[in-house]
């Protein structure tokens, strides 16, 4: 499929992260249920599967704060496939195992690597070598970084010994020598992750389903990206952040959101022809058919908060050269299937930047009501080059949102939609799918008619998020029939 045309056709999509797939272990993975989900999408007429970022998260499991802009989360690997390959049958326990009862992902992958090294075919081994060569621009630094991070009990790189913190060549070489096996194991798990992900992507594409990914505009300070590319970011001589990223007070939070990410040194990025961003985009375009740029407005101006501030209130907008960056990306990749997440405080300058590069923005129906008829989220104000949503992973479920409204607010919504006998959330699903927006997406929670207790994330909080899973029992024949009927009715 030609990438330039992927966002110009009328399609329906579902938003569901990989971890939300059914699985008895408590988190979804790239195993059989991922393929079952593709089958469900294809059978129902859904042509786009949107996920959250697939990176390696920190302890809070947020996919928007990861250890690498390139590496995939090994927790998503289908471990059963490693058993089926036979790479585990002759390998004894790794040092972290307790009497053979350890089934942690890292232990299993370590043992699988040892088995792979001993039992794999020459063809498999050559494929691993080729993978490492192909990903050398980021894989060598990432595998060393992660091995060191594990050696230092998960501490951030700015707390490591000075020679490693400052990346002195002799210290790095010594670390690579001492940590050879952990480094190879980390490279192996990336090899397996990418192999499984690309296989799933190929299967989805063969069944007419496009994979839609998400790129957080900022990266985590505790990441290989900052450790290995310090010039790319605004840091002082000690490697500390004088300012951090976030957003001012808005719909989601009265004190704004202090994300804590480092800001980009755009002068350095311009001088280096945006090579860091080009490498980042290359990785993501290999993995997805469509990409969303999270916090797109940061390409025009970003909210800089003094690092010693506890909230995001006392920040300021600082300009960014988004036009030059997008021009460089377009020169490198041609027309790209990018979606701009343009929610929050959006100025005319941000909108002009998006329109200049013909990027569709996002319209959230939960933001549409209770305002004037000029509200840009009301469907009568949509244009075709738009992605319409009932809500996103940061919103309440549509049913939870609707139930939280007053009787008058609910009545106003029914008045606007003119379907007083229809029920939520399918009334809003039908509204999204009937709109002129080329792409309309609904979270899986809305398909399943679930309430607030099943939302994915509450912005500004750090506990209880990112753990929601669905079960196939929730997807009744009646729900499938309603969903497929709406898709056919509105020619998606």
SSE topology:
Blueprint: E1 11-15, H1 32-44, E2 48-50, H2 79-84, H3 105-119, H4 122-134, H5 136-151, H6 162-165, H7 169-178, H8 180-206, E3 210-216, H9 224-228, E4 243-247, E5 257-262, H10 266-271, H11 275-287, E6 290-294, E7 301-306, E8 316-319, H12 322-333, E9 338-340, H13 348-356, E10 361-364, E11 386-389, H14 398-403, H15 407-417, H16 426-434, E12 439-443, H17 444-447, H18 477-489
Parallel strand pairs: 1-2, 1-12, 2-3, 3-6, 6-9, 10-11, 11-12
Antiparallel strand pairs: 4-5, 4-7, 7-8
Write out key terms for the chains shown.
492 residues, eight-stranded parallel beta sheet, four-stranded antiparallel beta sheet, 12% strand, 18 helices, alpha/beta
Describe the protein in words.
The chain has 492 residues and is of the alpha/beta class. It has helices at residues 32-44, 79-84, 105-119, 122-134, 136-151, 162-165, 169-178, 180-206, 224-228, 266-271, 275-287, 322-333, 348-356, 398-403, 407-417, 426-434, 444-447, 477-489; strands at 11-15, 48-50, 210-216, 243-247, 257-262, 290-294, 301-306, 316-319, 338-340, 361-364, 386-389, 439-443. It is globular. The protein starts with 10 loop residues before the first strand and ends with a helix.
Major β-sheet annotation? 8 strands, parallel
Q: In what range is the share of β-strand residues?
A: 5-15%
Order of helices and strands: EHEHHHHHHHEHEEHHEEEHEHEEHHHEHH
| pLDDT averaged over residues | 94
In whole angstroms, the N-to-C terminal distance is 17 Å
The portion of residues assigned to helices is 25-40%
Number of helices: 18
Question: So what's the overall shape?
Answer: globular
Low-pLDDT parts are none
- Counting helices, strands and paired strands, the structural category is alpha/beta
Kindly provide the radius of gyration, computed on alpha-carbon positions and rounded to a whole number of angstroms.
23 Å
Strands ordered across the widest β-sheet: 9-6-3-2-1-12-11-10
- Please provide the count of β strands: 12
């Amino acid at each position: 499929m030609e990438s330039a045309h992927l966002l110009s056709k009328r399609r329906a999509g579902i938003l569901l992260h990989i971890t939300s797939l059914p699985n008895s272990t408590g988190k979804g993975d790239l195993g059989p249920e991922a393929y079952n989900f593709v089958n469900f999408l294809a059978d129902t007429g859904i042509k786009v599967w949107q996920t959250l970022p697939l990176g390696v998260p920190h302890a809070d499991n947020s996919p928007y704060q990861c250890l690498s802009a390139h590496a995939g989360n090994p927790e998503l690997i289908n471990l059963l496939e490693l058993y089926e390959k036979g790479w585990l049958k002759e390998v004894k326990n790794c040092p972290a195992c307790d009497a053979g009862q350890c089934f942690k992902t890292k232990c299993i992958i370590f043992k699988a690597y040892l088995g792979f090294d001993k039992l794999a075919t020459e063809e498999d081994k050559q494929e691993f070598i080729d993978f490492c060569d192909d990903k050398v621009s980021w894989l060598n630094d990432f595998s060393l970084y992660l091995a060191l991070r594990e050696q230092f009990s998960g501490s951030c790189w700015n707390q490591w010994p000075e020679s490693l913190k400052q990346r002195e060549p002799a210290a790095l070489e010594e670390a690579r020598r001492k940590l050879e096996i952990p480094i190879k194991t980390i490279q192996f798990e990336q090899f397996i992750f990418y192999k499984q992900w690309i296989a799933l992507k190929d299967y989805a594409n063969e069944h007419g389903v496009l994979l839609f990914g998400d790129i957080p505009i900022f990266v985590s300070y505790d990441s290989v990206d900052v450790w290995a590319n310090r010039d790319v970011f605004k840091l002082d001589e000690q490697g500390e952040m004088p300012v951090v990223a976030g957003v001012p007070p808005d719909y989601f939070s009265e004190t704004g959101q202090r994300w804590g990410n480092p800001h980009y040194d755009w002068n350095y990025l311009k001088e280096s022809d945006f090579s860091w961003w080009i490498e980042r985009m290359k990785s993501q375009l290999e993995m997805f058919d469509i990409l969303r740029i999270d916090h797109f407005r940061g390409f025009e101006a970003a909210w800089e908060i003094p690092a010693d501030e506890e909230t995001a209130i006392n920040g300021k907008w600082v300009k960014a050269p988004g036009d030059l960056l997008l021009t460089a990306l377009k020169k490198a990749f041609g027309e790209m299937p990018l979606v701009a997440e343009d929610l929050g405080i959006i100025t005319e300058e941000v909108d002009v930047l998006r329109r200049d590069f013909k990027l569709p923005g996002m319209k959230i129906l939960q933001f549409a009501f209770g305002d004037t008829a000029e509200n840009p989220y009301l469907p009568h104000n949509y244009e075709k080059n738009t992605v319409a949503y009932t809500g996103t992973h940061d919103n309440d479920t549509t049913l939870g949102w609707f139930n939280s409204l007053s009787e008058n607010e609910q009545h106003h919504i029914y008045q606007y939609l003119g379907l007083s006998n229809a029920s939520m959330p399918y009334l809003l699903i039908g509204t999204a799918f009937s709109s002129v927006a080329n792409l309309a997406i609904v979270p899986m929670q809305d398909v399943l008619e679930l309430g607030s207790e099943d939302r994915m994330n509450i912005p500004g909080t750090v506990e209880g998020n990112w753990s929601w899973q669905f079960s196939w029992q929730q997807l009744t024949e009646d729900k499938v029939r309603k969903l497929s009927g709406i898709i056919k009715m509105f020619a998606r």
